[in-house]
Design goal:
By secondary structure, the protein is α+β, with helices and mostly antiparallel strands. The chain is built from 28 helices and 13 strands.
Length: about 750
Amino acid sequence: MSHAQPPTRMERLAAFAWAGLLLGCALLLAGLLSRGTPLDTRITALLPDTQQEALIERAEQRLTGAFEDRFVLLVRGDSPAELVAELKDHLRDSSSVDAFDDDLSQAPGSDLGQYRYRLLPETLANADDDAWVERGLNRLFIPGSQADPRRDPFGLLDAWLEQRFAGPLHIVEGLPAVNDESGRWFVVSGQLSASPYDMGMQQQLMAALSDFRDTHPDAELLRSGLVFHAASGADQAKREISTIGLGSLLGIGLLLWATFRRGSMLLSLLLPVASGVLFALPLTWWVFGTLNLLTLAFGASLIGISVDYALHLQCARQLSPRLALTRLWPGLLLGLASSLAAYLAQFATPLPGLRQMATFAALGLIGAWLTVRLWLPWFSPSPHASTAHIATQLDRLRLPSRAPIRWSLLALLGILAVVLIATRLTANDDLRQLNPSPDALIAEQQRVQGLLERSTGSRYLVVTAEHEGELLERLEALEPSLAALKADGHLAQYRHLAQAVPSPATQRANLERVRQAYSRALPELIARAGLPSDLVERAQAPLREVPLLTLDAWLEMPAGRADSSLWLGNTVKNPDVAALVTLGDADDVAQQALRQLADSAHIVYHDRVATLSNHLSRLRDQIALWLAVAVAGLTLVFSWRYRGRVWRVLLPPLGALVATLALFSALNVGLSLFHLLGLLLVLGIGLDAGIFCTEHPDSSAAWLAISLSCASSLMAFGLLSFSATPALHHLGLTCLVGLAATWALVPFARAGSRRVCSSPN
């Protein structure tokens, strides 16, 4: 039986100092929890902090503000008026909705009445006098018509509103509705009472909708809005924390119990894990001001790494009680350094979420290592006979000194792997790998957007000018090209301010055309209708002074508030002004045409999805470069320490990298940023294995610890491959393949070591 070595005075002081620091972390965590510091559920936290031009940045802020805290629901069923009323009641009672868009059902005629002579649709602007007369007569004699021959004999305002608000939305029984191939949907939309990422508000909203469904099981409901994706992401993160974190802990606990059969041993192995989490959690939360649930899901994998240091220490003390602990510290320190290098590489990325994950993991590893170094030497649990038996059986996996067939097979597989990587490896920068929402929810949102013909705001044009009039003229100049793209099916929809507010020049031309019609067509209309002739003068009187419709006036109207997101106002180059043209889905033809439109100095085309995909591509290249630099740098360091044995250190990690990339190449799995981050973790864990099999080549304790380390890491990181978040799935899948390859290659790194080398002093 081994006994703990008595600690020195300096070691006792360091141990107590570490205990005090952990106590401080516990108090900090308690304070953060008592203040109710919010958890961050945003998947967008993984997106880069892009340094964009001021104009694009303002456009992004305006669009985000316009869409972020809004929602749209489509409902249908029996008694639609009652359904809509009850749905609103449920939402209102839940306190999750600040206001409903009741203005959708209000016609803006009263606000635009004084401007109607300057608002002329193309159908009337290009019509001759006879067409004007026929329109006026039709309005007068159609049953149920509310035509007013004095105020608006030609129905100018109605004609304008029909053109301006032409679209899928129409009013049925006083309620906004849209039609599809199977029936009519009624629209309930509004503004949330809090941020869509507020978990309390999310729960209230989801509970209200659930209650409504329970009350009306036959009613159909479609949802659209960021809040639904945020709520889904929060629920998913919670599930994965419980399944991945607890599943990893349970699996590792069972593995360790089966190996050591001592409760005290399990406690000594899990103590570094608990210390690492206690050290990392409050400090990460405090440094970043918030904590993303993805960080917790990713941090659950810390269990598999932080237990490694305790495994190497306790395996050595259980199986080699005479081994001085001083011979373990260099390998443990090198293992920590290599793992930190893998994690801290994430700091090279401008992804806030990944930097937070890297901070959590790095602090956790440091905390676990300090616990092993400062606390575990104080005591040593008594060994169980099964531990030595397992180690003996496992040690038989050592390759013989001469195994030409196995080495030839390994070399052949290596050559094949390199050929596959060189010829078939592809990249994948699809932004959907950041989207954790289930396919059903994405399809639901797309259906709502398609029925309402609304754009997602991911594509837009920014148009600038020296003043408002010129800006509206430039927007009008885009109309023919955009209309043609939409008519040909290349562009789903588009929207800009000039559709609601014509330029001053167009308004002057419209007013002149109306005056001509009132001068030439109105007398004939009055005569043919048999109305008093004095109506001509009374109808022409308002034409003498007609106010100009301005953007400010339109945006202050209830009907114009929805267009406020299109107006950017003054640019950084005062007194220039800018506005947006939001665009719907665009195929390759439309995108090419939009880029050609943006060749002008006053037009900028921005595709948010393409831009972010390019960012991911550049980040992937940076991480690949960092991976190569890390391999080269570590090779130099290990070559200095291990000389001719350096290949034994590098074979498990580098062989695992090659094997993983080759498998992805064979399966046509495109390499993404998150696959590369997984490869960095494989590199760090594989180096641990290579270091210890080289530091202690003849030690069955080291081989047992390496095997337990790989198995526990597989349980921790490999379980991430079952994550529904694509980014974590890619990382976990990479670790699953890479760590399995690492363990399989360690026997080759140990091959013939009894004759070739011995343990360093």
